[in-house]
Design goal:
This protein is 9% helix and 22% strand. By secondary structure, it is mainly beta.
Length: 538
């Protein structure tokens, strides 16, 4: 009996604790302040319908009160579904100043109609979290935000109409741990780095698309050397070498300098960033070889260096030891030599992009052992030789296969059943024919099928059109496919069989068809000739 009474008491206490927030006495002054704050918005989906005089404010949507005092200390009013339907529209009311204990304010992804961020926010000294991300503010970021001495997380990014003229106020936020000013124009203050580097508690810095043009600093030491874990500066205008101070950030986990104009080589001192798990240096003007020291970044999971001018071979011991690597993108460089077989040891690898380089040799067979591989792209290289079932032996998770502008020859048995279910096939300029590949019938989830200039000769098999009826995009151009398609119903959104040996009338086009290749009739032997047969439907 005592046990059952004890259990009932525990359950009762649990229920009471769940109800405590709603039963808290709401501070009347704060309640009326919140109602005035609500009046400054339009609320098309009635997100704030619970905000009324008849209800205690501690039970209102998005409002959190202290369990003891009942004072409002958090407002969670960010747009919950990232859609315009749920957006609060209006301007910020100074009624917020009456919430003297407010620590957390999230108004992200609402619509403040291009109004400036009000300077009175700098008087809300209790704030530790302020999120105005993507809320359609514009104008000057007020210097008064430098008075938020307790702020730890400050997110003003996603407001492309904002700008900063003097960034010195940021150095006053000594407790700041996470800062996002993405898409805010910061170019007016060339000393931005000097100010940011004074933030000794800073752990995450996000400054994408900020029109920054210099991250070279005279500083020999930056205060966040041992605290910074995320440095994200993509899509700025850095036209210089990677600065030396970067490689002293020993705690860094994420480094994103993509889509800038960085020049010079990747320094061997990059190995100092031994905790990195994300490195993105893509879309720059980096030259030289991939440094051997890159292989010392044992925790690396994502490595993206595409669209640079890197040359030389992919040396095996650079990348073959990165056992946690799941994403490797080196496309669009000038890398040469063979694809190292050691890449087949990367058991965690899910995405491998090596296309648009100058690689040669054969496709290593042990890449077929990468059981976690989802996407493989090796097109536009000088790869040659034969690809057989062995090259795909363990690729049961493969969803995207791209092999094009190479000299490889597919040699698989007629009754081969692949271990994968592809969503996208891009085969172009390699040898797949002469017969239509029967293994395609096993692929049930294809969205894109490109078999362009792959040496297919003869008629399309009877099973193909029914099988292909759910494929969104089909390219079969530049083969020697023959036959009459006048009784065939094309259901794909985009269809192109340019430069084959088709005869007869045009195929039937279902309402799903948006585009048919513009040279389809002229480069076949169809009875019906048109300048183009683009079919565009709204």
């Amino acid at each position: 009996m005592r046990n059952s009474e004890l259990i009932m008491m525990v359950l009762l206490l649990a229920v009471l604790s769940l109800c405590k927030t709603n039963s808290l006495a709401c501070n009347e002054r704060e309640k009326h302040a919140l109602l005035r704050f609500k009046q400054s918005f339009t609320d098309p989906t009635n997100r704030l319908s619970s905000w009324s005089l008849t209800e205690g404010c501690c039970g209102w949507a998005g409002v959190r009160c202290d369990n003891v005092s009942g004072r409002v200390f958090e407002l969670h009013l960010g747009n919950p579904d990232d859609s315009s339907k749920s957006t609060l529209v209006g301007k910020l009311s100074p009624a917020l100043l009456e919430l003297e204990h407010l620590k957390f304010l999230n108004l992200s992804l609402n619509d403040f109609r291009g109004t400036p961020i009000p300077s009175f926010l700098g008087s809300m000294s209790s704030l530790t979290y302020l999120n105005l991300w993507g809320a359609s503010f514009s104008g000057l970021v007020p210097h008064q935000l430098g008075n938020l001495s307790s702020i730890r997380q400050l997110y003003l990014g996603g407001n492309s109409g904002l700008y900063v003229d003097n960034f010195s106020w940021i150095s006053l936020l000594s407790s700041l741990e996470s800062l996002d000013l993405g898409w805010i124009d910061l170019h007016r203050d060339i000393h931005w780095l000097d100010y940011v580097s004074q933030l000794s508690s800073l752990s995450e810095l996000y400054l994408p698309h900020c029109q920054l043009n210099n991250m070279i600093s005279s500083l020999g030491y930056v205060n966040f050397t041992h605290s910074l874990t995320v440095l994200s500066l993509p899509s700025n205008n850095f036209i210089h070498n990677m600065p030396n101070w970067l490689f002293n950030l020993s705690s860094l986990l994420v480094l994103d300098l993509s889509d800038n104009s960085l020049v010079g080589q990747i320094p061997s001192t990059i190995s100092n960033l031994h905790n990195l798990n994300y490195l993105n240096l893509s879309v720059n003007m980096l030259i030289g070889r991939i440094p051997e020291s890159l292989g010392q970044l044992k925790h690396l999971e994502i490595l993206s260096i595409f669209s640079n001018f890197l040359c030389g071979p992919i040396i095996p011991y650079q990348l073959g030891n990165l056992s946690f690597l799941s994403y490797l993108d080196l496309h669009g460089n000038k890398l040469n030599g063979p694809i190292p077989s050691q890449l087949g040891n990367l058991s965690s690898l899910s995405y491998l992009y090596l296309y648009d380089n100058e690689l040669n040799g054969t496709l290593p067979r042990n890449l077929g052992l990468l059981s976690n591989l989802v996407a493989l792209r090796i097109g536009n290289n000088s790869i040659e030789g034969t690809i057989s079932e062995v090259n795909f032996a363990k690729l049961s998770k493969l969803k995207s296969l791209g092999i094009y502008l190479t000299s490889v020859i597919f040699n698989v048995s007629h009754n081969w059943i692949p271990p994968f279910q592809l969503h996208h096939i891009f085969l172009m300029g390699c040898k797949l024919g002469p017969k239509f590949p029967a293994w395609l019938q096993t692929q049930r989830f294809l969205q894109t099928l490109t078999l362009h200039d792959v040496g297919i000769v003869g008629t399309v098999p009877k099973w193909f059109w029914m099988w292909a009826s759910n494929i969104q995009t089909i390219y079969l151009g530049y083969n020697q496919i023959s036959g009459n398609l006048s009784q065939v119903l094309i259901n794909s959104t985009i269809f192109d069989a340019d430069s084959n040996r088709l005869v007869g009338q045009l195929p039937h086009l279902s309402p799903n068809v948006v585009l048919v290749g513009d040279r389809y009739t002229y480069r076949n032997n169809l009875d019906e000739k048109r300048d183009n047969i683009y079919v565009v439907r709204q």
